[in-house]
Amino acid sequence: MIAGRTTGLHASVLALNRHYAAVQVISAKRAFCLLAKELAEVISVEERSYQSLDFGQWLEISQIKASLGDYEEDADWVQSVSFAIQVPKIIRLLSYDRMPRNAVKFNRRNIFLRDENRCQYCGKKFSLHKLSLDHVMPKSRGGPTSWENIVCSCLDCNVRKGGRTPHEAGMKLMSTPSKPSRSPTMQQHLDSSKYRSWKAFIHGE
Hints:
Order of helices and strands: EEHEEHEEEHEEHHH
Number of strands: 9
Number of domains: 2
Low-confidence stretches: 1-6
Strand content: 15-25%
């Protein structure tokens, strides 16, 4: 086993299409399946340049690093019975031509991610089981279920607000709710230094 390393199979990997446009974030397990089937290649980013590597080349580099004990601080690894392999940060799908979808899914998880698990009334962060969703303009008064009218709220603030508007309840929103320009999951990774190499392939970064 690699000392201090987790299996890494659930680490995140950015998948690019054939034209190097970011498509989606996938698990390391899925990425390795695509690499093993020769449906994808690794994109290794070093400073401002990058190189393409097939699965065999990436495995060889990983084995050299492992033999030298060269484990980067933010790298994830997978340890098999006979070898260790580093989880790539980025892969490129060799025959996938579709462009990424611009639509951001409107769902509970993405709202929590957009609002960073922070109650938009009291400003405090909470674990998921202590959070709920609130209609800024109450649903009973015609308020829509949309990005612009739903916010993350702690249970206490939700009860306090009840079926009133924030103004009526004497409460103030931390920020005006709006639809994210990109997937909150993608943005969460971009905000981490661990995935800084993704920025070169994501429009607007």
